[in-house]
Amino acid sequence: MAQQSDIKYLTPITVEVRKKKYCRFKRSGIKFVDYKDGEFLKRFVNEQGRIFPRRLTGTSLKFQKKVAQAVKRARHLALLPFVADNLKTNQ
Fold first, then answer.
1. Please, what are the domains in the chain?
2. pTM, full prediction
């Protein structure tokens, strides 16, 4: 049997270090999510038009609810589409 000292690697083993998620609203002191700002709300929506979950964005529960409500209002006023094929093509 090979001992641990006998094992040699060609490349060093990489260990992923994840950045800590943070709520961008709390960090920058935003208290109100504006539903009329479609470009800002596009950051929380994927290419198909679905809202990103908290676990991906790092947004706190309080602000995730406000973001979801703002996206829904923006969709109702036709500032954001309900369904899209390529929503973020021009970035």
1. 21-86 (4.10.640.10)
2. 0.73
